[in-house]
Amino acid sequence: MSETNPAAAEVAAPHRYTAAVAAEIEARWQDVWDADGTYAAPNPKGDLAGDPGLVAKPKKYVMDMFPYPSGAGLHVGHPLGYIATDVFARFQRMTGHNVLHTLGFDAFGLPAEQHAVQTGEHPRVTTEAAINNMKSQLRRLGLGHDKRRSFATIDPEYYKWTQWIFVQIFNSWYDDEAKKARPISELVARFESGERAVPGGRSWDALSAAERADILGEYRLAYASDAPVNWCPGLGTVLANEEVTADGRSERGNFPVFKAKLRQWNMRITAYADRLLDDLNELDWPEAIKLQQRNWIGRSEGARVDFPIDGEAITVFTTRQDTLFGATYMVLAPEHPLVEKFTPAAWPEGTHDVWTGGHATPGEAVAAYRAQAASKSDVERQAEAKDKTGVFTGAFATNPVNGEQIPVFIADYVLMGYGTGAIMAVPAHDTRDFAFARAFELPIRCVVEPSDDRGTDASTWDDAFASYDAKIVNSHGEDVSLDGLGVVDAKARITEWLQRKGIGEGTVNFRLRDWLFSRQRYWGEPFPIVYDEDGIAHSLPESMLPLELPEVEDYSPRTFDPDDADTSPETPLSRNQDWVDVTLDLGDGRGPRPYRRETNTMPNWAGSCWYELRYLDPHNSEKLVDPEIEQYWMGPRAGQPHGGVDLYVGGAEHAVLHLLYARFWSKVLYDLGHISSPEPFHKLYNQGMIQAFVYRDSRGFPVPAAEIEERDGAFFHNGEQVKRELGKMGKSLKNAVTPETICEEYGADTLRLYEMAMGPLDVSRPWDTRAVVGQYRLLQRLWRNVVDEATGEVTVVDAEPDETTLRALHKAIDGVRQDLEGLRFNTAIAKVTELNNHLTKAGAAVSRPVAESLVLLIAPLAPHIAEELWRKLGHTDSVVHQDFPVADPRYVVDETVTCVVQVKGKVKARLEVSPAISDDELEKVALADEKVVAALDGAGIRKVIVRAPKLVNIVPA
User: If pLDDT is split at 50, 70 and 90, which confidence band does 386 have?
Assistant: First the structure.
C-alpha cells in the first residue's frame, strides 16, 4: 500500500491501522479501563480490599519517583521511566502477580511559589492546574495506574501524616545501646529515676522546664538549634548545600550565599549513619548509587585527641593518630565556637608578619578573615588547586605527645561540618597542610619514612609524602614511642596511650551532617510545633492535625540587599499574626495556654520521604498505614530481608538526598513499630535520559528545532546555517517535543514502542522524530496480520502452524519473557518485530494460536492495539489480565546449529549438527567431512579440540 498517498490508501484500505484509528482505539480503551477498574490492585483489607484470589497471588510493588507537576507540561523525555514501569507492571500482571502501580504528585515546589510571588495567585491554584494537565497527558499514554491510590503532597489529608511523622521523630531519641529510636518519654523516665545521669550532674527534678527542654533537645531526632547555614539575603531564605553552586551562589537566581548562624530545625540523621551504610549491602541498587551514598555518609575510623589550651582543650578527629608527633600547628574552621574565646587582645611576641594578614590585632585579623570565608561555598573552600589562605589567632595549643607549643590558625579549608571543625596539621604527610605550611613558613617534620629517595629532612621536599604502608620515624616521647612500627600498629599503640592518659580515644567519624529541615517559605508543610511563653517547643497532638497553611497577603519571604550578610529571615507565615499567636489546649493537663506557632515550613522534599507508604493505604484517616497492608506490600521476605518496594525507577540525580532521607524516615518508623520494613526501596533502577539536538545561531542562541532544514549534512534556520549539538530536551532550548504531537501523528502505542526501542533503558539516547515511523509500521504490519484492511474482518485461521513458525514463535516467547523480566525492552521489541516479520513474509493467513500469542507478547508494550486485537479475536476478558505465553522447550532449542571446523586455525568446513551432539560424535563427523579430509591431505593429526556443538579445531601432526 502506498505510504506517499494516504488518501488513496484510505480508500483502498478503509480498515487500515492509522493515527486516526489509533486515537479512537486508545481513547475508547482508556475509558473502558477506567470504568472497569482494570488496574485496581486489591489490598488484603480496608476500603481497597478486593478479590481474595488476587490478593493470594504473589505481590509486586512497582513505583516511579514522584513527579513534580510543572506548568510547562511534559515533553517526550519525561515519560520514559513511566512507560518502562508500566510495561514491567503489565508483564508482572500477566505472569500471575497482584501488581500495585500508581502515581501521585510531589506538589510543594518553588515554581508555583515564584509564580505566586509575581502574580499574587495562590500557589495551590497553579499547582492543581498543572496536576490536571499532567494527568491528562499521562492518561493519553495508556499508563495502567491504580487511580484510587493517587494523591498530591499538597492535599491536607496527605500532609497531615507528613506532620504526624515529624511529631514521631520530634518525640524520639536514638538509644545507642539498643541501636534504635525510642520514645523520648522513655529517656525522661530514665532521667527521673536516676537510671541515666542527667548531663551537668543535677537531678531531673531540680531543673526548670526550659533546662529540661534544652537537655532533651540534645537527644531528640528532630531538634532546633543555632546552626551554620547557607543564608541567601537575595532570596530571603536558607538554602541546603545542594542548592548552592560551586562558586558560592544560589542555584535559583544566582545570588550570593553567606555562612550564618540561624535557629533552624534539623533531623538527626547522623544517628543512623552506621545503619544507613550497613543496610546498603542488602539492597538491589546500582553499585554507583551505593558508592555515592557511602561517600556521602563518609565513615572513617580514627581517634579524638585533646590539645590543651588555656586550661581547656581543642578536640580534633584524625584518621592518622600515628602521625601526632608530626603535628606542628593546628587549624580551626573560621566558624569554630572557640575561636573568639582563645583569641588574645594583642599579638604574642615574635609573631611572624605572614601570620597576621597585615592586621594590627588578632581580633581584627580573625573578624576580617571570617567575613571573607563566609562569602565562599564549601566547594570553593575545599578546592585543592586554590591558594591556601588563613590567619593566626594569636593562640598556642600544646601537642599532647611531646609538649610542644604549636600555633592555632583559622583557615577556610577546614569546615565545621566535618569532624570537630579543628585539625592537627601534619604538613609532611598531607598535601593541603604542606601547602599551608609553606605559605605561612611553618615547620614541616617527617614522621613517616618515605619509600623514595627524598630522605627524612622534610624542609627539602617539594611536596608531602602520604602512605599507609610505611615505617614510623621521629616519633618518641617520655613514655611512648612509635619509631619502627608500621602504620596499623602505631595507630593502635598511640590510641591506647591516649585513652590511658585520658586525652583521647579511638572513635568513628562520619562526613554525613544532620539534615537542615527549615525553609523560610510559604508553600510547604507547616511545622506541627508551637512555642510557649518560655520558648519551649511543643508538638501538636494528632487531633489538631493537619495544621493547614493559612491565607497570606504576600507569598514571598522578605528579601534583602543580596550582598548584605548581616540580615536574617522574615517568613511569609510570620506576617499572619492571627495564625501565629494562638491559645490552645494541647491535652497535657495544663489547660488552654497562649502559644506562638513555628513560622518556617518544611523543605519541599519532606512529602517524598514516605509516599511509598501512603500509596498502600491512601484513604486511611486513622493510621499512617494499616500494619497488615504494609506487611503485605512491603514487609521483609525471601531475598528482601529489609522489605521495601520491589522496583523503584527514577533518575540518578536523586542518588543521595531523596534516597538517603527516605531511608532515614523508614528506619525511624520501623524502630517505633509503625512499619515492618526498615528500607523503603529494595530494587532501584536508574533510567537514562532522552536527549535532543539543540540548534544554535551565530550568536549562540537556540532556535526552534522544528524549523530546521537539513541540506547536504548542514543545518539551516531561515536560510542561516546553524550549529547542532546534543543536549537536554526542554522549552528553553527550543527542542522540546510534546507527547501530544507524536500521539496525534502516530498514536500513543507507537510513542510507547519508540521510547522503549531507542536503546537500553539505563542509557541516555537522542530523540529522532523521523525514526518514530519505524514502530508505527510495526503496529501496522501487526494489525494487517490479524485484520483485513479492506473489510475489517479477522483473517486468522484455526489451522496448526508449521514447525518453522512454531520455532519462531516459541523462541520469541522465551526471549521476550526474559527481556521483559530484565527490563531489556528494546531487545524484547526486536524479538516481537522478528516474529511479526516472519509471519508477514510467510504470506499466508496466520494461525489463531500464533496470532493470539503475538498479541499477548506485545500487550505490555502496546496495550491499546493489543486490547483491540484481543477482542477482535473473540475474547471478552481484558488482555491486561491474561496469562503471558510460556515457551515450549522443544521449539526453543535450534533444530540444528552451525559447527565451524578449523584446520591450522583456518575455517575449512561448516557443519549443520544437532545442538545435543556429543564431543566424540562431533569429532567423528568433522574428521569424516570431505572438505576436512582434503585440507589434511593425508597428514597425521596431533590434536583435536572439540567444543560441541559449535567448534572443532584440528591440529595436524
Answer: low
CA distances from 324 to 164, 420, 474, 861 (A): 49, 17, 11, 64
pLDDT at 1: 41
Give kind and range of the element (H or E) at residue 902.
strand 897-903
Cα separation, 569 vs 457, whole angstroms: 53
User: Which pLDDT value is given to residue 608?
Assistant: 95
Coil, strand, or helix at residue 258? strand
Cα separations (Å) of 888 from 569, 803, 816?
69, 12, 14
| C-alpha cell read off for 43 | 489490598
Q: How far apart are CA 231 and CA 620, in angstroms?
A: 39
C-beta of residue 157 within 8 angstroms of C-beta of residue 546: yes
Read off the amino acid at residue 652. A
Whether the link from the prior residue into 546 is cis, omega within 30° of 0, is yes
* pLDDT tens-digit series, residues 615-649: 999 999 999 999 999 999 999 999 999 999 999 99
**Per-domain residue ranges of the chain:** 299-510, 894-956
| 938 secondary structure, DSSP code | T
CA dist., res. 723 & res. 713, Å (int): 11
Closest CA to 880 of 866, 899, 900: 866
CATH class of 894-956: alpha beta
Residues 6+ apart with CB under 8 A from 796: 786, 845, 846, 847, 848, 851, 873
- What's the rounded Cα separation, in Å, for the pair 562 and 555? 19
The residue-averaged pLDDT of 377-383 equals 67
pTM of the model: 0.86
Phi, psi for 153 (deg, rounded to 5): -65, -15
User: Is 7 a residue whose pLDDT tops 60?
Assistant: no
Strand order in the sheet with 941-947: 906-913, 897-903, 951-956, 941-947
pLDDT at 163 over 90: yes
What's the pLDDT tens digit per position in 856-914? 999 999 999 999 999 999 999 999 999 999 999 989 987 789 999 999 999 999 999 98
- Of 319, 300, 312, 303, the C-alpha closest to 337 is 312
Lookup: cell for 589: 493537663
Q: Contact 744/76 with Cβ under 8 angstroms? A: no
Average pLDDT over residues 793-801: 94
CATH architecture of 299-510: Alpha-Beta Complex (3.90)
